[in-house]
Amino acid sequence: MQTVTALDRSGPRPVQVIAVSGGKGGVGKTNVAVNLAVAMARRGRKVMLLDADLGLANVDVLLGLKPPRDIRHVIDGACTLDDILIEGPAGVRIVPAASGVHRLTRMNERELAGLIYGFSQVRFPLDTLLVDTAAGIGPHVLSFCRAAQHVMVVVCDEPTALADAYALIKVLGRDYGVGRCRVVVNMAASEAQARAVFARLLSVVTRFLDVTLDYAGMVPFDEQLRKAVQARSAVVEAYPRARASEAFRRLAATVDGWPLLEQASGHVQFFLERLVGADALALAG
After folding, report:
1. Whole-prediction pTM value?
2. What pLDDT does residue 230 have?
3. How far apart are CA 97 and CA 160, in angstroms?
4. DSSP state of 37
5. SS3 label, residue 103
6. Distance CA 62, CA 94 (A)
7. Distance between CA atoms of 41 and 193, rounded to whole angstroms?
């Protein structure tokens, strides 16, 4: 197994690393990740968005971008990670994954270690790294969530969405020591409904798991968000006065207030080291 040399933590600036995940597809996880990234960038943050759905990439599709190169070119040694970065709305830097490339979901230990280690060479001075994971509880999803400072779980008011979110939270808490998750209720009819959805999830988690859940916020069902998706644009850019856009700005303000942990995990290098740690890499083999 390839080992990654411990990185010097005396110099790098602290970086807030947030994994945006969901128990199932269809809850709007990528939409939340994209619009949160843009909203945070509008607040002055230096944001990088990693499309970590390694086989079914759609961040670039959602934004109407056509990256000439992607993660597979880094894995093949054709270029560096810095070479594939593309600039999105508000200056967000996007790390594009590849769509329909099955082998990216089966990267071996050496490939995953080399890819993630490449982040230490990126010149963009980021202070916020958002990781848009795949849905479900696959090994790569769990590894990215485990390595992040904060895990944001996106849910909606559907029984399967709540059941699968619970499964994700359970595995993260039981097997990976993730003691806190932050929940965003998407496509809600109202604030009251969103809090009711969160309360249902919280009651089950509190009863059966040793995990703390925090209510991070809600995004309302908004026809203008659907129009933005069809136009391949972030709703916060296409319709800044939409209800969904206002919700994303509130969410960005909330996230901006989350603590930057006063320890090694405050550096992106530590995130990388955890991601390529022995037990995480064992899952990728």
Report:
1. 0.86
2. 95
3. 27
4. H
5. helix
6. 12
7. 29
What backbone torsions phi and psi does residue 147 show, to the nearest 5 degrees?
Answer: -80, -20
The CA R_g of the chain, rounded to the nearest whole Å, is 18
Closest CA to 101 of 91, 109, 93, 111: 111
Please, which residues bridge with residue 219 across strands?
186
Closest CA to 41 of 82, 87, 81, 84: 87
| Whether 217 contacts 258, CB under 8 Å | no
Contact 82, 123 (CB under 8 A): yes
Tell me if 20 sits within 8 A of 130, measured CB to CB.
Answer: yes
Pick from 180, 206, 164, 190: nearest CA to 29: 164
- DSSP letters for 227-270: HHHHTTS-HHHH-TTSHHHHHHHHHHHHHHTS---SSGGGBHHH
Give yes or no for a contact between 124 and 93, defined as CB atoms under 8 angstroms apart.
Answer: yes
| Contact predicate 144/19, CB 8 Å | yes
Buried b (16+ CB within 10 A) or exposed e, 178-200: beebbbbbbbbeeeebbeebbee
The predicted structure's pLDDT at residue 245:
98
pLDDT at position 56 is 73
**Do 137 and 163 touch, CB atoms closer than 8 A?**
no
Among all chains, which residue has been given the structure tokens 């999830």?
201
Q: What are the 10-residue block averages of pLDDT along the chain, 285 residues in total?
A: 35 78 92 98 95 80 87 76 90 83 62 64 82 89 88 97 97 94 98 98 97 98 96 97 98 93 51 56 42
Contacts of residue 106, defined as CB under 8 A and 6 or more positions apart, other chains included, come to none
> CA-CA-CA-CA torsion for 245, 250, 254, 256, nearest 10 degrees?
60
